[in-house]
From TrEMBL:
<keyword id="KW-0378">Hydrolase</keyword>
<feature type="compositionally biased region" description="Low complexity">
    <location>
        <begin position="498"/>
        <end position="515"/>
    </location>
</feature>
<keyword id="KW-0645">Protease</keyword>
<feature type="region of interest" description="Disordered">
    <location>
        <begin position="498"/>
        <end position="522"/>
    </location>
</feature>
<comment type="similarity">
    <text>Belongs to the peptidase S13 family.</text>
</comment>
<dbReference type="InterPro" id="IPR000667">
    <property type="entry name" value="Peptidase_S13"/>
</dbReference>
<protein>
    <submittedName>
        <fullName>D-alanyl-D-alanine carboxypeptidase/D-alanyl-D-alanine-endopeptidase</fullName>
        <ecNumber>3.4.16.4</ecNumber>
    </submittedName>
</protein>
<feature type="compositionally biased region" description="Low complexity">
    <location>
        <begin position="25"/>
        <end position="35"/>
    </location>
</feature>
<dbReference type="InterPro" id="IPR012338">
    <property type="entry name" value="Beta-lactam/transpept-like"/>
</dbReference>
<feature type="signal peptide">
    <location>
        <begin position="1"/>
        <end position="25"/>
    </location>
</feature>
<keyword id="KW-0732">Signal</keyword>
<feature type="region of interest" description="Disordered">
    <location>
        <begin position="25"/>
        <end position="46"/>
    </location>
</feature>
<keyword id="KW-0121">Carboxypeptidase</keyword>
<dbReference type="Pfam" id="PF02113">
    <property type="entry name" value="Peptidase_S13"/>
</dbReference>
<dbReference type="GO" id="GO:0009002">
    <property type="term" value="F:serine-type D-Ala-D-Ala carboxypeptidase activity"/>
</dbReference>
Amino acid sequence: MRTTPFAAVLVGALLLTSAAARTEAATPPRAARTLGTDPRSLGPDLDRLLADGRLTGAQASALVTDAATGEVLYEHAPGALLLPASTLKTVTAAAALDLLGQDHRFTTEVLAAGRRSGPVLDGDLVLRGGGDPTLLPADLDALAGAVAAAGVTEVTGALRADASRYDGVPLGADWAWDDQAAYYSPQISGLTLTTDTDYDPGTVRLTITPDTTPGRPATVRVTPAEAPVHLTGGIATGPAGGAYSVQVDRRPGGNDLLLGGAVPAGGGTGQEWIAVDDPAALAAAVFAAALARHGVTVRGGVAAGSTPDGAAVLARHDSAPLSALMVPFLKLSNNGIAEHLVKEIGRVAAGSGSWPAGLDRIRDFLHRSGLEPTAARQTDGSGLSRQNLLTARRLTALFAFARTRPWFHAWYDALPVAGDARRMVGGTLTNRMRGTAAAGRVHAKTGSMTGVDALAGYVERSDGRTLAFAVLLNNFAGDSPRPVLDAFAVRLAGDGAATPTPVPTAPASAATGPGSRRSAPHDWETACLTDARC
């Protein structure tokens, strides 16, 4: 993915500064206050954790409050403006639920643009995207079946892909150029497609199967099979017991996928998810194949184009309600869903499916809700951009506010749960804090990218008290300070002192191996779904 500079995104960025906020950020930390049965050691314990050697030279910000009363129980530079990474998704999720509503759905339609003469449509067939980030090949197949059931067997014109619900800007501000092929950094389009119920929009999946003989080429299968991608290079079969070293990249500006590396013989299949160029073209190609399977012939091929006035709806598909989409969004830290929500907010609330319009509406939501205790800057919905800045104080204020809203349970239930082995419950915390006081009691959003690690959410203590907390760690080098974050949450969940676990023996960016996604240096969270070292 290449970075796309565009000043308009910055117009919609959330930048709220004031003398009061600057004064607050400079205020010395207050002493820890009473917490359960251990009022004396909370402050010293948390101070000791944040003094861990892995944070030498880094920046740390933390705030712990009583979620019901707002009482400050611990703070450490709570007004510091730091990169939030994916903890920013909690802001996007809350704004989407509040502005779009829990029952909001994304609708994909097929329309006839022309006159019907029996089974013949004399004109074009239009696949109009509704911004659905969860549209599956099976959904397109059902739409094709509905077209055939409506009696259409021939289209004299073209199949047109209409992605006009959103603007034509596919990439967020300051997204890393070398993530252009990464599934977690997809192009955002009003018409897109995903391969499975992880719902990574605008991606294809590669399944790599080793040969039985080392040295021979591995087999690579693309899903969807009709995807307009071209494979170059190759993946070798390595010796049994060898390393999984598959590499897949995409040349910018097209869909040539460059293959390299090896998969070990006898090691099972591996899978890679790759973001494509022009997601609307991907969806249209898959739909065209589905039409053919259902006996509908399109004479004019596939092309891009908006829906003309007067076109008649032949079929439609509605996504699950927004409340249900919160689960894959927050549990799996899905960046594509985040950005679709920002553009959908802009389209619904401001008439423009763009980042500037959506971010402007999010800013208004925060202002109306009184969630501006400190300055902040938001330039996307996912936290991928390094222009984002957030404070621990703003996050904990959001957590307290959310408890008063009718959508709270949909939001809360979508947060990852520490140590829960069920993937769609534990999410990015599945393999963290297992066997500790925090397991099952910490419901929190993770956030990570190079030099950034964060955790923010709630602790449901055994004494019945609910805490809201946020910890942001920035600008560290060397060993990951993630054990510090986990020890912090464990300390809040129990009454005894917590000690950070040892540093992982392998970097968090290491491949997780065949049969699972590989993490990448700009986003460590997905590795934690499969790698206990996280």
